[in-house]
Structures are given as C-alpha cells and as structure tokens.
Design a protein that fits this description.
By secondary structure, this protein is mainly beta. The chain has one helix at 2-20; strands spanning 21-35, 40-55, 62-76, 81-84, 87-95, 100-110, 122-133, 138-148, 153-165, 170-176, 179-187, 191-208, 212-230, 235-252, 265-279. The longest helix has 19 residues, at 2-20. The radius of gyration is 20 Å and the shape is globular.
Length: 290
C-alpha cells in the first residue's frame, strides 16, 4: 500500500508539472539525540513536493494551485517505526487589488505506518490566509486552519508579517504558530543566510503487531541556521543545521492512555538537513506560505 500511495502521487505530479510547475523540492533531514534515560533515538526524514498553479482569467488575479507532497519519517531507537504522510493541498488565491490577497485551501492526507488502512488513517482539513500589503517593505497575514486527526480536531489561527529592512538586505518572515525566520542577503540573487524557528505537531494512526490500533502524537520545535545558494535563477540548494529544542513522541491506545511515558521525550538533539528546490519565485519571496 505504501508504494501504491507514492506511485499515485508521482504520476499525478508528473502529469501536470510540465506546464505549470512553480516549485519542486526534495529534502533530507537527520535528527540525532537521546531520551531522558540516555537511550539513543534517531530520526531520518525525507520530504518531496511540488507547488503547481495556473491562472484562471486574463488579468491573472486568480490562481488555482495544487501541492502534492510525500514525507517518510524513519525512527530508530527503543521502538523503531516508519511513518508515512502523502498529502494533497488544493486551493485558490485571489488578488483583490495591490493591497489585499486571500488564499483558501483544503487538504487531504494519509498519516500512518501503513500496516493497514481504514477511515481513521485519513485526515481532512482546510483554512484561509489573507495578506495585507501595507507598503513595499511590510505586509501582514492572518487567517485560520483546522484539520481532523485520529483523536479530535486540530485548529489554530494564523498571524504573521513579512518585513524587509536594512536597505532591503534583511527580511523577517513570521507565520505563527508554524515558523519564523530572519534572512540576510549576502549577495543579491545568489547567497542568503539566516535563522529559522519551526514548530510541528502531527498525529499518525498506527497498527502495532498487526493487531492493536494506536495513534502517535509528534511535537517538535527546532531552531536552525541556514544558507541558501542559487545555482541558477530558479535552482536553489539550501542547508540547515541546529538544535531540536524539543521533541516528543507520545503513543496512545484507543482509550487515550499514554503507553510510553518513559521514552516519549528526546533531548540533546542535533539536526541537519539539505534540500534542492526549483522555483519561479524571486529569491526574496516566501516558499512556505502553507
């Protein structure tokens, strides 16, 4: 089943990417650390995705977009595990005028170890994000997001800003609660460096020993320094390195009882990642709005 999901994603991506591709990304991340009991607990993460869009009218104010992606998380330690997350986001973006822009989107994902598939393995959600451009240097963003998970609904508001300062060499980009980064232009159109903070919360449906259904809740907060280098106008290589300030894997049973209280929290984690992207966006524009 895991290979079928990946194959369908790739077929869909390739079939429409030739004409409308705006961004394609492949990322590899390694996290190494220990539990509170000093047991080694490592995670390897693979991410791949596309952002595809096309205009729906002649004045190009409205864009329909799709973002298929695939993630595989390999956990080694006291309880080795593989978690998979193929996902599709689709939505529409409209520029009302030079100041206001709004995006509405829906998502469907399969978050599981894929030992078996039932309705509880699928997650659906959506949201909206509005952008107000106050000046050439400053814009504000706000909105909301909700997603059904194995247990309950995850919902939170979006609030953020994008601010360029210091003769446009510095950029502060914030979208809480997801991420915040400060980027410095070392050399226009080629070298960029900065600091990024990132927050992740996920739930995965799991079947252990082919009998018992559970779910895993993952919480991460990372701080990383990063470097971006544009090989060409559209092809960029970037790397990040830093510390995982907080990571927790919590395994629950069907009665919401925590099963792994002694090994759930990981400490002293060092993280590093490398990625390659192709984009039609300019270097100072955000590649992570959703």
């Amino acid at each position: 089943m895991k290979f079928i999901c990946l194959a369908c994603l790739l077929v869909f991506s390739v079939s429409i990417s030739a004409q409308y591709t705006e961004i394609a990304t492949f990322e590899f991340q390694q996290l190494n650390g220990n539990t509170k009991e000093n047991t080694n607990y490592n995670t390897t993460v693979f991410n791949a995705g596309l952002l595809l869009g096309f205009n729906t009218n002649s004045d190009k104010n409205t864009t329909v977009f799709f973002r298929p992606s695939y993630q595989q998380r390999i956990i080694t330690g006291p309880n080795p595990l593989r978690l998979y997350k193929p996902e599709l986001i689709t939505g529409i973006s409209h520029n009302f005028n030079d100041s206001w822009k709004i995006q509405g989107f829906a998502l469907a994902r399969l978050a599981s170890n894929l030992n078996s598939i039932d309705n509880e393995h699928y997650q659906f959600g959506g949201g909206a994000l509005a952008t107000y451009k106050s000046s050439e240097r400053l814009s504000y963003r706000f909105g909301a997001y909700a997603r059904k998970q194995p247990k309950g609904v995850l919902a939170f508001p979006f609030i953020g800003l994008n601010y360029r300062f210091g003769t446009n060499r510095w950029q502060l980009n914030v979208l809480l609660p997801q991420y915040a980064y400060l980027k410095y232009t070392v050399k226009e159109s080629s070298w960029y460096a900065g600091l990024r903070l990132n927050y992740v919360t996920e739930q995965y449906r799991t079947e252990l020993n082919n009998t018992s259904l559970h779910y895993i809740e993952l919480t991460e907060f990372t701080s990383e320094v990063f470097i971006e280098y544009y090989l060409t106008k559209g092809l960029v290589v970037y790397g990040r390195a830093g510390f995982l300030n907080y990571q927790k894997y919590e395994l629950y049973n069907e009665q919401d009882l925590l099963l792994n209280p002694n090994t759930r929290e990981v400490k002293d984690v060092v993280t590093g990642r490398i990625a390659v992207s192709y984009t039609h966006l300019r270097a100072h524009e955000t590649r992570h709005d959703l």
